[in-house]
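Researcher: Quick test of sequence recovery. Tokens follow.
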């Protein structure tokens, strides 16, 4: 079941709520967003998060509104203000994990206090029977800032008492004491005296700590010793078992209440691929919210379909972002840019091989605990099946790991889906992956891969066998995300505009025909999916990416500039550091985000280097490398001669980049799906990856710019392009058209329009519902001052350009774009 068109947003506006952006502030924004033309605020998670959270994905209490964003009265007031403007709210929900820092998560606190006997023990995915004897019946707690013995001997681990409640303190962490330990303490006499005696003796303190239901450890041991499922590699986010109906009911009790009240009209589901049974969860969610618009955060690899039987309206739009980005990249630039990248960095361009290496790294190091759990399971399974009973642990580990490395998508859904077509598709994929794994690891017994193929296809059934198949599928998503998005993307800097969530840096550009085919199919299958160009997780702001796309059309000029800049900055290097790839990425960041402050550049380059995990990393930063990188970037941005040269190169790209941005904006607003505007991106969005793209937004200038824009003509708006006004003006105009002609864009077919003339390949033109036409230039990096005979073949009838309020008769590009870089035509009704 999917909602009717009346419940689907016209356009959403994403807001990142936190203590700096509250419900009261959002309420004050409603009139502005209404004027802009959006129909729904798209809110980051609003349930109580760990104090100080800037994103809200670390929910610690499913039963409370986050007090840092406001009170229930504030939420009610926001709803009332939205209702007055006939607007709604889409809420980001988090079914996969919880934040477990401190005492804020009472479920987790109770588990630490009572262990497997806790009523909430079944809420979390904890291995109470871990192979490591130290962890049996306990929860791993990697919260120590030093080794356990050091914490005890230095006095950094101690008991404390307040109001008769005894806790264990270490650094900034407070941990509960088991009921059994409390009873034993009280038998020793006055609590104060008993605590003092224990704190005064390392052995007594160790004896006391070992009787708790958790095992304290150095935080750096988390990747290899954890015994609970977490979100990716974040130990402070513990996975929950939403597949248990009582957990779902608890976790969504307040959201269900908000849905019933009408305070929430749509849902964005975070990281559903991490769930044991995604389809089961989505069906239960749809039963809970039968009329809601529901979109799914699902990273679809190129060519991968979304399950058409899932009861959702589509994805959060990374698939759209990928094709939108691709159609503005010139494939002719691939060879010269590749050749120069190899020349400048000295690196090969084998991206698939890089991904293999990074997946192996992530499995071996960052997800070592999760990998060990799978291998432990497989060892137990092997003992029950004669075909692989004599396989060694090392062989079993290497075999399943190779399958995960060879998997080209985030996960499969065998046993986690009721759809037979999904099962057939997954079966084909798993067989292909097993064949690839056999080729990659010829030294392993072929029969072992046959056995694993059977396990993953659920041909070998049993409690352990099923558990292995489902856990394998839950793990491959984090492997892909951490290895590709958060590692390989920072190690493959050939053309960073391609390094985007849901994309493939190895695939260079998309043809007009390919774009049209994708949109036609999307409109047919998922007409209400979200269409995004920037999110809180994208690697580049949409307009930075649009400007970088121009480099694909000017590869030789770009190469000359980089060679020149590198010569200028050679004295700023410290020996061999920074490496040439980091240097090359720095130049692309300057080109995409110009003007870029030194502080933002330093933060971006530090993150890029640590994420790449080649010369430094988050866990153990390499001081020499990072100091050299910081020196290079700092001195480069203080070098007047260098910065002036960068500005000379980028200045001719500014107007062209803005045209690209407007073209991508109007395509997003009119092509297919529900367009989303990321907070602040109604003006030029030149952000870098988070936390750069999560900075607090100043809405005062945006309000002023929109107020001014609404009184301007197309020509006047374009003249104000340095401020970003043309983008806000275009959004306002286009969303007004969507409101005036709702059925054309929500239900109308997507139809490519033929273009003739010398510049035909530079025009993206399509019609929606037979009554609205979008015309946008593309691949304009070489400049298109005169469109000559280039013409969009308009269907019969009278057409009006709603951006310029003029008749569109001939369809000549030089006329359609004379007053504004893009055009939006509407069929005039016959009088």
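Model:
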């Amino acid at each position: 079941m999917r909602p009717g068109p009346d419940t689907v947003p016209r356009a959403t506006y994403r807001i990142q709520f936190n203590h700096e952006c509250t419900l009261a502030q959002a309420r004050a924004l409603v009139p502005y967003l209404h004027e802009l033309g959006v129909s729904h605020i798209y809110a980051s998670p609003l349930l109580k998060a760990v104090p100080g959270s800037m994103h809200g994905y670390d929910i610690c209490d499913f039963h409370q509104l986050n007090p840092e964003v406001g009170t229930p009265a504030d939420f009610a007031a926001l709803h009332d203000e939205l209702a007055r403007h006939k607007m709604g709210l889409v809420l980001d929900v988090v079914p996969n994990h919880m934040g477990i820092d401190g005492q804020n998560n009472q479920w987790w606190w109770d588990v630490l206090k009572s262990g497997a006997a806790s009523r909430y023990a079944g809420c979390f995915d904890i291995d109470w029977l871990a192979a490591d004897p130290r962890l049996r019946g306990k929860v791993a707690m990697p919260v120590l800032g030093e080794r356990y013995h050091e914490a005890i001997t230095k006095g950094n681990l101690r008991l404390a008492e307040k109001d008769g409640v005894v806790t264990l303190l270490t650094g900034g962490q407070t941990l509960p004491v088991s009921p059994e330990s409390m009873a034993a303490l009280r038998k020793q006499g006055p609590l104060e005296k008993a605590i003092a005696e224990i704190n005064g003796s390392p052995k007594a303190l160790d004896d006391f700590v070992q009787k708790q239901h958790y095992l304290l450890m150095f935080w750096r041991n988390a990747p290899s010793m954890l015994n609970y499922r977490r979100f990716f590699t974040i130990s402070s986010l513990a996975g929950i078992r939403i597949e248990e109906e009582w957990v779902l009911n608890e976790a969504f009790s307040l959201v269900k209440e908000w849905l019933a009240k009408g305070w929430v009209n749509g849902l964005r589901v975070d990281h559903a691929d991490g769930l044991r049974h995604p389809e089961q969860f989505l069906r239960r969610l749809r039963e809970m919210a039968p009329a809601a618009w529901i979109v799914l955060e699902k990273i679809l690899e190129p060519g991968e379909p979304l399950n058409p039987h899932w009861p959702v309206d589509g994805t959060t739009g990374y698939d759209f972002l990928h094709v939108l980005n691709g159609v503005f990249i010139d494939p002719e630039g691939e060879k010269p840019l590749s050749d120069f990248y190899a020349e400048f960095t000295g690196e090969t361009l084998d991206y698939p091989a890089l991904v293999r290496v990074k997946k192996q790294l992530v499995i071996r190091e960052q997800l070592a605990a999760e990998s060990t759990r799978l291998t432990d399971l497989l060892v137990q399974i092997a003992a029950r099946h004669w075909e692989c009973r004599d396989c060694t642990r090392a062989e079993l580990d290497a075999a399943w790991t190779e399958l995960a490395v060879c998997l080209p998508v985030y996960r499969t859904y065998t046993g986690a889906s009721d759809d037979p077509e999904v099962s057939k598709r997954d079966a084909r994929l798993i067989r292909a992956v097993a064949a690839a794994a056999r080729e990659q690891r010829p030294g392993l017994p072929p029969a072992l891969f046959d056995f694993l193929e059977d396990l993953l296809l659920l041909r070998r059934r049993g409690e352990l066998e099923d558990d292995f198949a489902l856990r394998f599928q839950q793990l491959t998503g984090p492997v892909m995300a951490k290895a590709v998005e958060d590692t390989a993307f920072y190690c493959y800097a050939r053309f960073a505009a391609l390094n985007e969530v849901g994309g493939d840096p190895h695939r260079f550009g998309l043809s007009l025909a390919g774009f049209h085919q994708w949109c036609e199919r999307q409109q047919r299958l998922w007409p209400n999916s979200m269409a995004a160009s920037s999110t809180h997780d994208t690697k580049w702001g949409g307009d930075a990416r649009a400007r970088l796309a121009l480099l694909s059309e000017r590869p030789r000029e770009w190469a000359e500039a980089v060679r020149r800049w590198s010569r200028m900055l050679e004295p700023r290097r410290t020996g061999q550091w920074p490496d040439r790839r980091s240097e090359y990425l720095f130049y692309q960041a300057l080109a995409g985000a110009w003007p870029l402050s030194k502080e933002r550049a330093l933060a971006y380059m530090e993150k890029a280097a640590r994420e790449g995990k080649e010369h430094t990393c988050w866990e153990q930063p390499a001081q020499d490398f990072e100091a050299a990188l910081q020196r290079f970037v700092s001195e480069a941005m203080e070098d007047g001669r260098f910065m002036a040269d960068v500005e000379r190169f980028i200045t001719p790209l500014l107007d062209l980049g803005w045209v690209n941005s407007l073209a991508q904006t109007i395509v997003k607003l009119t092509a297919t799906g529900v367009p989303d505007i990321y907070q602040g991106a109604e003006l030029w969005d030149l952000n870098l990856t988070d936390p750069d793209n999560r900075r607090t937004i100043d809405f005062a200038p945006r309000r002023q710019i929109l107020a001014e824009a609404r009184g301007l003509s197309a020509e006047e708006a374009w003249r104000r392009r340095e401020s970003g006004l043309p983008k806000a003006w275009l959004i306002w105009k286009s969303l007004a058209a969507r409101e005036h002609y709702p059925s054309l864009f929500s239900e109308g077919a997507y139809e490519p329009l033929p273009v003739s003339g010398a510049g035909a390949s530079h025009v993206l033109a399509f019609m929606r519902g037979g009554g609205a036409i979008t015309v946008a230039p593309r691949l304009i990096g070489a400049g298109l001052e005169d469109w000559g005979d280039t013409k969009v073949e308009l269907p019969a009838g009278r057409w009006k350009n709603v951006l310029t309020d003029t008749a569109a008769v001939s369809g000549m590009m030089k006329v359609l774009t004379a007053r504004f870089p893009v055009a939006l035509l509407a069929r005039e009704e016959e009088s």
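The mean pLDDT is 95.
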